[in-house]
Amino acid sequence: MEKILLAKPFYPSVDAFMEIGIKLEKTDNFELMSATLPKNWRVEEGGDWIANTVKIFDEKGRRRAYSLHVAPSRRHAISSSTLLDRRYVVMSKAEGELGQQIFEVVLVDTSDGTVLFSAGKTKHEPWHDAKKRKLHSEHELVKMCEDFATENFPDWENCLSYWD
């Protein structure tokens, strides 16, 4: 089983990572935890002068988590964290040239990128809510996608649901 280092804090919780089989242990570095992945899971690591990244994929090749460990000199702009991915996500997809873009608001199955529902297109991208990792529900098209998701996948906002 592969061991890697992941950035704190963990969202939604350390317990959620343990629930999907990722074992976490403290390290001497207060910013990182050591993680042991389940059998046949893999990682892709990357990085540059701004941050180191770790993408975690399950045995079926689906991305399940993302870790970002930000360099101390860049922490004024972005934060370190490790996040579990949700199976279904409402997102906007940009089309066209920068400054002339149209945004399609869709519900996507993150396991394979399939668009499950499109609420339509808008000239103005719905603003993101960074803390909750989603688009704002006040936007009409976002609300339509969320309603579709809730009707068809009642627990869609839970990152532990619908993976198997």
Can you give the mean pLDDT? 89
Could you give the order of strands across the largest sheet? Answer: 2-8-7-6-5
Instruction: Write down the secondary-structure element order.
Output: EEHEEEEEEEEEEEH
Strand content: 35-45%
- Tell me the helix content: 10-25%
Radius of gyration, taken over Cα atoms and rounded to an integer in Å: 17 Å
Q: Please give the number of β-strands.
A: 13
Model regions low in confidence, pLDDT < 50 over at least 5 residues:
none
Instruction: Please give the alpha-carbon distance between the first and last residues.
Output: 21 Å
Q: Number of helical runs? A: 2
Question: Per the principal axes of the C-alpha atoms, what is the gross shape?
Answer: globular
Main beta-sheet strand count, sense and barrel state: 5 strands, mixed
Structural class from helices and strands?
mainly beta
